[in-house]
């Protein structure tokens, strides 16, 4: 498929939420002209404050752009926005999507884009908004190699680590694999911390020890500072984790992989949401385990 030459280096960005805003900021700093669209006026205003131009709607955003980047919440949003992109795009446009969605929804959009002559790069990212603001995201992409090479200068502004995985939906699968480990770690970390808390360990010292131990993964160390101050403000909420766990379990069912522990973690997050903490950060599993252990919230 022929790819349009980016004479103006204009990036259309659709979805200026928690992750989209720092991506837009990095694109602007890298010298790209950014045109933003978002259904939420507050998000769009934030994008404009970061240096993006305001698009009247998705069609206007797409028609102004050489490349379109999307950051969307779920399968339904990808289907709707992707269809609008395909309907407004000229042949040769490249669409790079950074969302966490199912491989099936992504494959359906790939077929729609082929019909419209749009080159489609699945550009998943690993990291939270804090990491995104620091330009520390890991980018894991799949799709047509020529389209990936074309958008790599844009993706490189999000972080220094990037991988090309193949022509199909591999980027969607690796994102689910990573989020499975993140969710499972959050569940085990909660149980470990409350076990130590019940054993009269000093809370802050215990977190320092865990962060410096063999168990101190990057994900654990991201959470040490907010956990020390019992800060559960959301970087990625429990409800968002439930959505991703459902995608993971669906993929396991589709491919015949038993995910028994993942199913238990999904139930843990259902309990987090049922107790009113679903909009807190996903590490609010700690509050759930404290309650189950007969303790007051820390």
**The CATH class of the largest domain:** Alpha Beta
Biggest sheet: strand arrangement:
3-2-1-4-5-6-7-8
- The class by helix and strand makeup works out as alpha/beta
Query: What is the averaged pLDDT score?
Result: 95
What is the CATH architecture annotation of the largest domain? Answer: 3-Layer(aba) Sandwich
Number of helices: 13
Annotated CATH homologous superfamily of the largest domain: NAD(P)-binding Rossmann-like Domain
How can the largest sheet be summarized? 8 strands, mixed
- Secondary-structure element string: EHEHEHEHEHEHEHEHHHHHH
Number of DSSP-assigned strands: 8
The unreliable regions are: 4-8
Report on this structure.
This protein has an 8-stranded mixed β-sheet with strand order 3-2-1-4-5-6-7-8, sandwiched between helices. With 298 residues, it is an alpha/beta fold. The relative contact order is 0.10. The protein folds into 2 domains: 159 residues, NAD(P)-binding Rossmann-like Domain (Rossmann fold); 120 residues, N-(1-d-carboxylethyl)-l-norvaline Dehydrogenase, domain 2.
Annotation keywords:
298 residues, Rossmann fold, N-(1-d-carboxylethyl)-l-norvaline Dehydrogenase, domain 2, 8-stranded mixed β-sheet, 8 strands, 54% helix
